[in-house]
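MODEL INPUT / OUTPUT PAIR
PAIR INDEX: 1
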Amino acid sequence: MAPADWEDWLRLMATDGVGPATARRLLAAFGPPGAVLAQSAAALAKVVGEALAQRVRAEPHGWAVLRARTAAWLDQPDHHLLALGDDAYPPALLNTPDPPPLLHVVGDWRALHSPRALAIVGSRHPTAQGSANARAFARALAERGVCVVSGLAAGIDGAAHEGALDGGGPTVAVVGTGLDRVYPARHRALAQRIATQGCLVSEYALGTPPLAPHFPRRNRIIAGLTQGTLVVEAALDSGSLITAEQAMHLGREVFAIPGSIHAPQSRGCHALIRQGAKLVETVQHIEEELQGVWDAPVAPPSAPADEASAHDDADPVLRALGYDPTPLDVLQARCGWDTAALQAHLLTLELDGHVARLPGGLLQRVARG
């Protein structure tokens, strides 16, 4: 992104009270962040209320420091900001109900587009066998060309990343802090390895500390980037069960490795199996369940500019929309997409200039010369 673009995205997301859902409402109403920030307080208030409208208009607290810190960070190799609407933004997240509007990435962002990806999560206090299982499964999957996604946490997460790296990677670490810090600190060397064989990704601004609410939030990204989630070991109160729950809500496969009925670290896995998660003992069990998904053809991360018109014709939502003003419910009936997926895709089309919103809630395709 050009400096003006990333500054607008960063400023909007740095506004107190503007989370992903609010940001998407503003973007849907007014267009790109620059257009949002240019609106009058009265116009903004119609969408988000008067108090938040005033905060959007004002400069966020600490904005000058954050802007300077981010500019310096972006000057470093393999540091990226990916926003909704960018070709580099992971398409898998667009098909989730709560895609983060802005992602910070260190490493190769193309790992976020892996068509064969599996989350491996579990306890921060695993047994020795649990760590060995995570490492072995991740290595075997990586050797088969699967991208392993986890959260860089102590325990199962770290073992999964290490196994994937040993198997040739790539691996993706979704973290709950700003990417200018590593948590836990003992994973600093591991984070450096991940950046060379995959990437680290965060929706949080630079300087964000490891706050407890951030880790359950980041789990939706772990689940969203993958076609399935494997829980290796988990107690009944484990945060990894949140990732599994998110995956279930997204219609993705959930797998669990069974353990001793006497081990607290196995009770979360057993609970998942009772709820319908697939019991797995080998990597082959995962491949059998996901082979059809993993073998499905996928589009490349981006297309050359001279293929833009062909892409327009290939997009199923644009084809369903046609060129006449159309209500959302009619468009949904035509294309058969669920509401969350359709709204997320429409937002991307709006930001790319393919679709415009008209008074009365109508949508219209924009002719491109």
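PAIR INDEX: 2
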Amino acid sequence: MMVTKRRSLRVAVVGVLGAASLALAGTAMAATPAAHTAAPAGARSAAAAKPAITATPSVSSVRAWTLFRVTGKTTGIKAGTKVTLQQKQHGKWVTLPASTPVNSGGSYALRVELGLKGKNDLRMVSGSTASPVFRVTVS
């Protein structure tokens, strides 16, 4: 079967790598209510509910069709929610068939192969929340 030119320019995803569980550190409560300073309930929940995603590639450059990982953490996104890889192509963000669920600690890891040679601008998204753009150069 012949691989088309368009297909060769697309990004292929090999699979999803299970992210390692992270232990959450508990916060100690003050012994007396007077010693504990708390923000208003509305402000506290609004800050906790603001979704954010980070993304870090395991390499900055890679040969075409060679595996690398994208890992990151999320805040304000429920465990089990999928985060998806996007690539900038011709000035537009294209959603690639590469996604992985967020684990209970808020982190994720994704195994990726890129076939589009040159500088690839990528980001991770979940709904309307996007990570900062990161670049992987494919040779």
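PAIR 2 NOTE: The first strand starts at residue 12 and ends at 16.
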